[in-house]
Amino acid sequence: MSDSKNKIDNLKNNGLDVYSYDEYKEKVINEDNLSEYLVKILNNTHEYSQKVLDEILSKINNRQHNERTLSTLVTIVNKIKNDKNYKLDKVSKQKILNTYNN
Fold it and tell me: Torsion angle of alpha carbons 25, 88, 53, 30, nearest 10°?
């Protein structure tokens, strides 16, 4: 099982019927795994709904994070600002930048 868009797409392209892990298990976002969500956004290995992104950013705004989370957020912000080819939709980029600026 996986919730990696890249893995799922590759398996589907090879003719397998594959379903995303998140279709079966609800995700719980907390201080302990928040940085993992951001790393997946940073590396563009997962796509999350705006609802999930809002929950991630809300936890950061409410100071429910650890040092690694902040470090990863800063890395994403630098990527948004410096990499014009960074594959993240405009709305998500703006939400991340607003969170960073707050």
Answer: 70
> How much is the average pLDDT of 28-51?
88
Q: Which of 50, 6, 52 has the alpha carbon at shortest distance from 26?
A: 52
Task: Describe the crossing of helices 34-42 and 67-82 by its angle, rounded to 10 degrees.
Answer: 20
For the chain, give the secondary structure using H, E and C: CCCCHHHHHHHHHCCCCCCCHHHCCCCCCCCCCHHHHHHHHHCCCCCCCHHHHHHHHHHHHCCCCCHHHHHHHHHHHHHHHHCCCCCCCHHHHHHHHHHHHC
Q: pTM for this structure?
A: 0.74
Query: Do 86 and 67 touch, CB atoms closer than 8 A?
Result: no
Rounded to whole angstroms, what are the CA distances from 37 to 11, 13, 15, 42, 45?
22, 25, 28, 9, 10
